Amino acid sequence: MSVVPVSYYLVLSAILFGLGVVAFVFKRNIITIFMSIELMLNAVNLAFVAFARAHNQLDGLVFVFFVIVVAAAEAAVGLAIVIMLAQHRQSLSVERVNLLKF
Amino acid sequence: MEFISQHPVLVASIIKIAVLLFIVMTALAYLTWAERKIIAHIQSRWGPYFVGAHGLLQPLADGLKFLFKEDITPPVTDRLVYTLAPFLALSLALSAIALIPFGPPSVPFPFLHGQQAWSITDINIGLLLVFAITSIGVYGVALAGWSSNSKYPLMGGLRSSAQMISYEVSLTMSVVGVVLLAGTLNFNEIINGPHGQSGYWWHFIPRWNVVPQIVGFLCYFTAAIAETNRIPFDLPEAETELVAGFHTEYSSFKFAMFFMAEYANMITVSCLATILFFGGWLSPFPDRWAWQIYLPGAGLVLLGIYCAYDTVTEMRGIARLQLAVVTALALGGGLLCLIPAVAGVIQGPFWFTTKILIILFFYIWMRGTLPRFRYDQLMSFGWKLLLPVSLANLVITAFVMIWPWLRHG
Amino acid sequence: MSLAFILFFLCALLAVGGALALILSREPIHSALALILVMVSLAVLYLLLGAPFVAAVQVIVYAGAIMVLFVFVIMLLNMGAEEHTDFSKIAKFAGWPLALVLMLWIGYWLAHAQAGAAIGTGAAVEPASTPGLSTQLFRQYLFPFEATSVLILIALLGALVLARKEE
Amino acid sequence: MPILHHLWIILALPLAGAAINGLFGKRWSQPVVNSVAVGSVTLTLLAVAELVREFSLLAPEQLPFVGNYFTWMVAGPFKVDFALQVDQLTVVMLLVVSFVGWLIHIYSTGYMAHEGGYYRFFSYLNLFMFFMLTLVMAANLIVMFVGWEGVGLCSYLLIGFWFLKKSAADAGKKAFITTRIGDFGFTVGVLLVFATFGSIDFGTIFKSVSANPVSEAVLTTICILLFTGAIGKSAQIPLYVWLPDAMEGPTPVSALIHAATMVTAGVYMVARMNPLFSRAPIAMLIVAIVGAVTAFYSATIGLVQTDIKKVLAYSTVSQLGYMFLACGVGSYAAGIFHLMTHAFFKGLLFLAAGSVIHAMGGEQDMMKMGGLAKKIPITYWTMLIATLAIAGIPGFAGFFSKDEILEAAKSGPNANLILWLLGVAGAALTSFYMFRLVFLTFFGKPRYDEHHVHVHESPKNMTVPLMILALLSIFGGWFAAPKLIGGVDYFEKFLSPVFSMYAPPMAEPAVVIGEPQASAGMELLKALTGVPVIVAVLGLLVAWWFYIKNPDVPKRLARSVHGLYTLLLNKYYVDEIYAALLVRPLLWISTNVLWHGIDEGVIDGVVNGSARVARASGNQLRELQSGNTRSYASWMLIGALGFTVLLIALFTRVVH
User: Fold this and answer.
1) Residue A1 has pLDDT above 60, yes or no
2) What backbone phi and psi angles, to 5 degrees, belong to D83?
3) C99/D637 Cβ within 8 A
4) Which residue of B207, B344, D76, D647 has the smallest Cβ count within 10 Å?
């Protein structure tokens, strides 16, 4: 059975990444924004795996692990921050969190 | 026809899935029956009795009842998620079972060469995949709790998701010890591989992983109970505090799905326990005891004889007829299994099922015996006792394994 | 049209659909579900790419742990649907086109780079062996591995400090 | 444990003492501080003794014994090892430094007993020991330079020990800066050495210089530069001005650093670099001239000083001049010999002076003393011995060494009668002003108010060192005694390997003078041999005549030659000249140009300007800070886009 060319995967990962960016720009809910970051990371992972397959090397896969770990750390801290935020101002909209301005 | 010959994997898998699904569903149904019976006897009651002989038709009745009840969906719920949740729960619970090998891979699939009879797939990271699936299982509960949009379910959902995440960690950790011993993630190899569990110590103690990994097993079993939200860790549906926990709002068949999912999970973890710690489909007896291949048949025949006796002495009317059918089935099956060829094929699944049944019995026994934890106790137990112990077990195992290498290079 | 292609396109469709759903749904939990969908389909794609271990890890860690955390937090806060404010003009007007440009750009170039380095049509996809992977991870990448472990530890502490109640 | 293979211990001990006292001494009582400081130095002394024992067992071909500990720095070909070496010269210096240092430590425990910052003082003192020992044991110029600068630092710290007193602080600064001038020359010299020989390691340098001759011009330059350093460190003309002021420091410091050890570092260095100097006759001549002139010149200043320590200071300068004279005329051994004896008697003189000051309750002006002989006999006798020694009265240490120097100047390898004359004159003056000091201090009527000042003999821990040093001032020179009766000079013999190993091949006398004149010259010279002794005695007598017999002569004399008197009294106005020529212009430049011009104008201007720019731009840019995360996200997106474009642009160039 024939194999899907790697470029397909790469294009897919690009599309996902772009969608992640879109989400990152357009979502107002902090948690969703986090999710969009995760989406981007996933897209990158896909690219990693695809390249690993393409070059028949395992390094790509190893990097996927690292990305996942980083994502986990980011999620842990980020969500803790989100909780603090929600406790202090009863909203999750990033546009309502704009103290940090001129 | 030629499509079949083209895609043997596909066809064989589909057939096996269908069969397995049927069997598991039935098993689930009768597991509920067994539970009610056993609990009843523990509490010196009769349990289900009137629907069919010994209440044997009770599960069927329940199923029908669930089907025909009105399916209430509270207006304030999040429709999509509300409907999605039970499907998620059940489908995941069932699909985990699909990875379990019920018998030795050596047994071929009839008239489709190159296919195994007793396992749907034989992938080399089966264990990991099972964990993957069970880890998603949380969503069923959590989403159900959230989407019901009412406080008890939310509480239950929160609790159970927290509990599941917490105990999943120690569940995985407790198993890693076995993986270290086996050096693989493939079920069949864990059972029967080069570092598998075949063979005996002193020619009579089977080389099961329980012996070296007893701590791991205890951790695993405890975590598994918590993972399946069973007593004594069944806080998500603690009636006294949360009505029925995450599935308070559910009714009719959606509720049934949760119910089945829970039992399916029980079966899954029991299967895992069997494979990882009790030598899976291996027989506990030394191979030199040739007669052991007749045990399944003999067992069934004995069951049949008992049923026959019961039929003539106890039963009246329709029930006698039903039990007679059971008797006929048991005797017939038993005699069939006494044919050596069949017996040889049937060995693996027989032992596997037996072990699973024993473990399940323990489950139910516990439910009949133990009280329920308090929530904070649960959490602190999981994080402060179970996890460290399983980690320690893991570390010790690792050290023991590399000890020779440490000693001389 | 072989099974592999069917599977690929199916999963790709699911992934993209999930991503879109993530963007379009206003209910955070729906977004979360959509993201889970994306992740699972990506996991299948990993299997297809002959990286079963990564697939499993993807499901276990991402879908099974991180996203559970998200769902958990969403449930915990239960803040309801997000409100549609448009304070940021630039995001409103410049966002879509830029994102699209970026998407196309990267996609084009990744594919192009593939064309440049002619690879990716190796015959049978033999799965990457788990032992090989672990050897790579614990030999060649030992230090990064340790570094990440420290990172995760620090993140853990940070989360604890942040989320604990002021007494 | 063969200490020969652990030379670093000798350095580690005083350093440890310094560290301990410096870090913890503040809270400790004086006895503890004493035990640490004196203990460490005592151990050092013992270590040195052991070292000498082992050294005596070494075979000649093993010398100099080099211990290489670690590579300190490497920059291309420039490689510096932390290496220490031991040869005869080092041994002598080690003995002198450690022994005199030890005595002075003990002395200080008495002298400083009533001072504040006790622990600080001893920490500095130990530190000084460390650096001095580093200096003398160094096996290459850089390590030597470390010791060199280190002792400079300690001298600065100790001169300014009473840093609350402005004069002390200024004196410290003066010493530091003045020596810096010399050190600059020294540094350049070191660099030139490296440029020339490709190494700063003594052994390598000497071998290569003796193996393949270098152009004399280069050698001369090197030597002169190095000698500049010596001038600064050993207070020779024209950089001697710091030493008299350095007397602001506590007297033990003056004794140890500014008489016995540090100031002799220059002499040691010249002697150490003898293979280079010996090949640079012009440099040698300069050294000799500077030495001789300094010897005479500062002796003249010493004539009229009334501050007891100032007198000693100028005599120190002059004695150092003698040592350089010795080196200059190629008799390094004599120089080192005088260095050693000088360390004894000058150290003793200072300590005794300290004891006098102590007795007088801090009074330093000799005009306010007198008649102390009875009251403080030990101090008196020891000081008298030291004076006899420095005056070169036969039988005392100073006699032998100074005599050798003058002998060498008169009839050495490159003798020079003018220098010899200067030396002799200096000797006469020396004996005069030293006895003047003694007479003014210990004889005649008390010129101080008996009711306020109750003179008292110093405690044991001060007098015992005095006595020990007194003995050394007598017998310390007797190594050379046999020479007088045609025997060998053991000291010279001991040191000879150092100075002969790489010595240039002896050129036969440049001009062979006709026999008769030669013989006549020889006769004359022989006749002149006794002259130093005579003039010394003369000086003694004149002093006696002036200050005992009829004390009003000096005043009349001063009045009659008033101009000269004031000139001498004001030290030839050298300080004022320096101030006018160097200090004020420098001050003006640094104030108006560097400070107001460059610092305030340029640098502050740049800083403030950048700050202003930042603020202005910030005022404009902060509009971007909408505080809206999505806007930031969009900006990030734009940036990312830009970067991808950039990256891919580069990347494709790589691929295709």
Assistant:
1) no
2) -120, 140
3) yes
4) D76
Does residue D601 have a pLDDT over 90? Answer: no
By residue range, what is the domain housing residue A40? 29-89
Exposure string (b/e) for D122-151, b if CB count within 10 Å is 16 or more?
bbbbbbbbbbbbbbbbbbbbbbbbbbbbbb
Among chain A residues, the shortest Cα distance to C17 is held by A16
| Neighbors of chain C with 3 or more C-beta pairs under 8 Å | A, B, D
Q: Does D566 reach chain C within 8 Å, measured CB to CB?
A: no
Q: What is the 3-state secondary structure (H, E, C) of D351-415?
A: HHHHHHHHHCCCCCEHHHCCCCCCCCHHHHHHHHHHHHHHHCCCCCHHHHHHHHHHHHHHHCCCC
- D567 Cβ contact partners less than 8 Å away, ≥ 6 residues apart: D573
Asked if C29's CB is within 8 angstroms of B84's CB, the reply is no
Contact residues, chain D, for C95 at CB < 8 Å: 630, 634, 637
- C-alpha–C-alpha distance, residues D294 and B283, integer Å: 111
Nearest CB partner across the interface for A99, out of D627, D637, D640: D627
Distances (CA, A) of D331 to D327, D338, D363, D406, D500: 5, 11, 40, 10, 11
In a domain, A77, yes or no: yes
Q: What is the pLDDT of residues D112-143, one digit of tens each?
A: 888 888 889 999 999 999 999 999 999 999 99
pLDDT digits (tens, 9 = 90+) for B268-280: 999 999 988 888 8
Per-residue pLDDT tens digits for B130-140? 888 888 888 88
Q: How far is it, in rounded angstroms, from Cα B93 to Cα B99?
A: 11
For tokens 């090197």, the residue is: D222
Which candidate from C87, C99, C109 shows the least CB-CB separation from D648?
C109
Per DSSP, helices labelled H in D112-140 are 118-137
Cβ contact D218:D192 at 8 Å: yes
Domain assignment of residue A20, yes or no:
no
Residue B377 CA: distances (Å) to CA of B57, B164, B215, D414: 40, 15, 21, 101
Going from N- to C-terminal start, the domains of chain B cover 59-282+339-408
Size of interface C-D (CB pairs under 8 A): 45
Q: What is the CATH number of the domain that holds A44?
A: 1.10.287.3510
Least confident piece of the model among B88-92, C79-83, D565-569, D652-656: D652-656
- Per the prediction, chain D carries an average pLDDT of 85
Residue A6 lies in a domain: no
Contact status of C43 with chain A (Cβ, < 8 Å) = no
Name the residue facing B132 among C56, C75, C78 (closest C-beta): C56
Q: How many domains does chain A have?
A: 1
Cα nearest neighbour of C36 on chain B: B136
Nearest-CA distance C56 → chain D (Å) = 31
Would you say C66 and C32 are in contact if contact means Cβ atoms under 8 Å apart? no
Residues linked to residue D140 through DSSP beta bridges, in sequence order: D201
Contact C88/D645, CB-based, under 8 Å?
A: no
The maximal CA–CA distance of chain B, rounded, in angstroms, is 76
Element containing residue D583 per DSSP (H, E):
none
**Mean of pLDDT over chain B:** 83
Contacts of A74 in chain C (CB under 8 A): 155
Per-residue pLDDT of chain C (167 residues; tens, 9 = 90+): 577 788 888 999 999 999 888 888 888 888 888 999 999 999 988 888 888 888 888 888 888 888 888 888 888 887 776 666 666 666 667 767 777 777 777 777 666 665 444 444 444 456 667 788 888 888 888 888 899 999 999 998 988 888 776 65
Residues 6+ apart with CB under 8 A from B224: B171, B269, B272, B273
Q: Where are the beta strands (DSSP E) in D440-551?
A: none
Summarize pLDDT for D309-335 with one digit per residue, the tens.
989 999 999 999 999 999 988 888 889
Query: Does residue D519 carry a pLDDT above 60?
Result: no
B159-211: pLDDT as tens digits: 888 888 888 888 888 998 888 888 888 888 888 878 877 777 777 788 888 88
